[in-house]
Design a protein that fits this description.
disordered N terminus, elongated, 17 strands, Immunoglobulin-like
């Protein structure tokens, strides 16, 4: 009789019922098999053709059934545990996702910046920025020096009669090492390649203007943005004749002079070599595009809706997790698949306590006025249900924003599970939850243990089947010998009876 394990997708309550039915059935089958065996054994005395194979099978089934049932019950229990751990891991991962959205300082960049003249500049704000407004006037934007050569016929035109030549760049008043071009390397493309390869702070490109002339190609040299990128170029043509072929005319209208950005911020003149200015106003990054016409305004207003949404998600996911803990540990749960799968399980109880502990007590990086979840409007009632007072959270964000960020993140970004720094409520919770559901955490460990046990139980079932097969063979052989012996005895009995009947007939003169 084949034996199979119960699917892990059944709930413990269903599995228990099935186990009870199976146990009752196994007991009934065992009793039936024994009765049948006794009847067959009794019939041996009559010498009637007994089915010794059925007799042996019934006896083996009676012995095997309770042993197989015990192993299958253990397998079914472990499969239920695995389902329960899987359910817990899933909801914990949902909590981890919500915590991840709150663990970085940059997650709280909630200032919305508006600019009066958005064509002239744009502004982004980080967590260090303060709500308010600023007056700004862009006097000039930073630009790089550009020098453009006179036209040449083609990228492969000979500029110096095929002779060697050298170029010398002076950048921000500092002469750079000479750039040498060997014999036969005096084409416009060779010049561009040599300047770029030298990597001296000036880049070169060859542009086809398509102007319809016989010399449509021009070499364009560009320095770094700002006054510090100013450069000059001198050429030594050696024994060649390139002086009239490679010319960078100072009067070329395509040339551009270098200059720094100049911006007046709240009445203060600020100069930078770049159009991206992030060190003038705390928390603000200005991206300049063009000069303004007079001054314009930057308005910074706190937008807390995105942050509030993240906290709401955390509350929802936390409550979902706690509900699942209730489902898997409640012996009366009737929820399919997961219900009552971890009743009395110490690991589930421990993990539940650890999860609740993440949102209690004081932050490892407390702010001056905000250091606990209740001060953010988050509390857990006596039934373990978390709730959020949106009004209280909004007040904390508006009046003690820096404290909220510090309490939640420790003012850190991008922490990993290996980070040992105090990281606030969210950062610390991220590290602990990641370890709980990670490859070395209790969820995976317990699941692996259950799988290992089931593998052993399956092996025990296979060994039991092998042992029962051997027992069946022995019973079959023994009962066959018994049947043969009984048949022989019955034959002798019949022969003796016939002999005695004949003798009696002779003495009594009966035919």
């Amino acid at each position: 009789m084949a034996t199979t394990s119960v699917s892990s997708t059944t709930s413990t309550s269903t599995a228990a019922a099935q186990a009870s039915v199976a146990s009752t059935s196994a007991t009934a089958n065992s009793a039936t098999s024994k009765a049948a065996a006794q009847k067959l054994i009794s019939s041996l005395s009559a010498g009637s053709g007994v089915d010794v194979n059925a007799l042996a099978q019934n006896l083996v089934d009676a012995e095997k059934a309770p042993l197989a049932q015990a192993l299958n019950s253990k397998i079914s229990k472990n499969q239920s545990r695995i389902s329960g751990y899987s359910a817990i891991s899933f909801v914990l991962n949902e909590v981890l996702t919500a915590i991840t959205d709150l663990k970085d300082q940059n997650s709280y960049n909630s200032l919305a910046a508006t600019v009066g003249d958005s064509n002239a500049l744009s502004v982004t704000a980080d967590t260090k920025a303060q709500a308010g407004s600023h007056d700004i006037e862009v006097l000039q934007v930073a630009q790089a020096q550009r020098r453009v050569s006179n036209g040449v016929a083609s990228p492969t035109a000979v500029l110096n009669g095929g002779k060697a030549m050298s170029l010398t760049l002076t950048v921000n008043g500092v002469p750079k090492p000479a750039i040498s071009l060997a014999d036969g390397k005096d084409t416009p493309q060779d010049v561009v390649n040599a300047i770029n390869a030298a990597n001296q702070g000036v880049t070169a490109q060859l542009i086809n203007t398509g102007d319809g002339t016989d010399k449509p190609y021009q070499i364009v040299l560009t320095g770094a943005t700002g006054l510090a990128g100013a450069f000059s170029l001198s050429t030594n043509f050696g024994s060649g004749n390139g002086a009239s072929n490679l010319v960078f005319d100072e009067a070329n209208t395509a040339n551009q002079k270098p200059q720094n950005a100049e911006v007046v911020i709240d009445g203060i003149l600020v100069k930078r070599s770049t159009n991206t200015i992030s060190d003038a106003v705390a928390g603000l990054t200005l991206q300049l595009r063009k000069p303004t016409t007079g001054s314009t305004s930057i308005n910074l207003t706190r937008d807390t809706s995105a942050i509030t949404a993240k906290f709401n998600t955390l509350v929802t996911n936390y409550n979902d997790a706690m509900s699942m803990f209730g489902v898997v540990t409640d012996p009366k749960s009737t929820v399919d698949t997961y219900g009552a799968t971890l009743v009395g399980d110490s690991t589930a109880r421990s993990v539940k306590q650890q999860l609740r502990g993440l949102f209690q007590g004081t932050s490892t990086t407390p702010g001056t006025s905000v250091s606990a979840f209740w001060q953010l409007g988050i509390k857990i009632d006596e039934k373990g249900v978390m709730s959020l007072d949106s009004t209280k959270l909004e007040n904390a964000l508006q009046t003690n924003f820096a404290d909220v960020v510090k309490t939640m993140t420790g003012n850190l970004n991008g922490i990993s599970i290996y980070n040992t720094q105090s990281s606030g409520f969210a950062g610390d919770a991220y590290k602990k939850l990641s370890k709980l559901i990670g490859p070395t955490g209790p969820m995976v460990t317990q699941t692996n243990n259950a799988d290992t046990q089931n593998s052993k139980y399956q092996q025990d079932l296979a060994k039991l089947d092998t042992r029962m097969q051997a027992l069946l063979a022995r019973y079959t052989k023994q009962f066959a010998a018994m049947d043969s012996l009984v048949g022989s005895v019955n034959t002798q009995k019949s022969s003796l009876k016939s002999t005695f009947d004949g003798m009696m007939a002779a003495y009594t003169n009966k035919n």
